[in-house]
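From: lab user (bench 3)
To: helpdesk
Subject: output format question, protein + cytidine-5'-monophosphate

Hello, I'm new to running complex predictions and I'm not sure whether the block I got back is the full result or only part of it. Here's what I submitted:
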Amino acid sequence: MPLPLTRKAPAKINPVLEVLGKRPDGYHELSLLFQTIDLHDLLTFEPLAEGLRFECPGAPEGIGPDGSNLVLKAAEIFLGKYPQKKGVLIRLTKNIPVAAGLGGGSSDAASTLLGLDQMFETGLGPEGLREMAERLGSDVPFFLRGGTALGTGRGEKITPLPSMPGIDLVLVKPEQGLPTPAVYGSGKARFTGGECTRQFLELSREKGLSYLAGSLFNGLEPATFALLPETWNIKRWLLEMGALGALVCGSGPTVFGIARSPDHARSIAEKLRLPGRRVFVTRTIA
Ligand code: C5P
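Helpdesk reply: Thanks, we reran it on our side. This is the complete output you should expect:
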């Protein structure tokens, strides 16, 4: 195997996120669709004589090598299971904004498990890594395979779905981030019963992009709008600029807009760039 090993860790959007109810364990029962996009972090894995080292050049806040980030947690869980497999330097290059609703930390964690499995030739594969992924966070199991998938439970139960058609996207991330627990805990989420997921899946089989764009739904959106009103404005501007649909990503605060073409996505992006704000032109990936 050529070393150092390099892996892309893609971000995600959720075209549908339904909050079905509150669970006794403090989590929320969800029905949601995941879709990976062509915006990614990069991880490299290099053998060392011994020990675990982590580097994240130019690390944004919240990614320090202090044991609190999900790459280190994932590596510690993996190496705890295989204590005889020692010696790795993991380098993370961040492109996905932190606390943005794009699943960057979860994707990095899944990529860490997949990278260590490959490097140490433990042969676990996505199925064998699932239990470790579930311990790391609700979104982590999805990123073991990526693509298009349905999530249930707290989001960790994954059913792969046929790929969606490629969709051009504009992502707008306000300067401020939002911690996921604050959004779920705000008391402002809208509860639904699974009908939005069913409708989206039906339309994705039978109809075109504009129908899909009209069926986007996120039950956390009212909570994100309440905590950070700028997100409501971003959604409105995206729609005014001709986006076919726009929605808060996961718990936010990033908002994605569906464009008609790559050129359309670029022209919307140009108009929404402001100091402090991060704007990306990207696409869904299978
Ligand atoms: O699973 P994860 O660690 O990513 O979740 C972070 C937080 O988000 C949880 O502690 C909880 O407050 C909230 N959450 C939730 N219901 C979910 C997923 C996350 O309430 N299904």
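A quick orientation on your result: The pocket of cytidine-5'-monophosphate is lined by residues 27-28, 30, 137-139, 154-155, 180-181, 184 (CB under 6 Å). Let us know if anything else is unclear.
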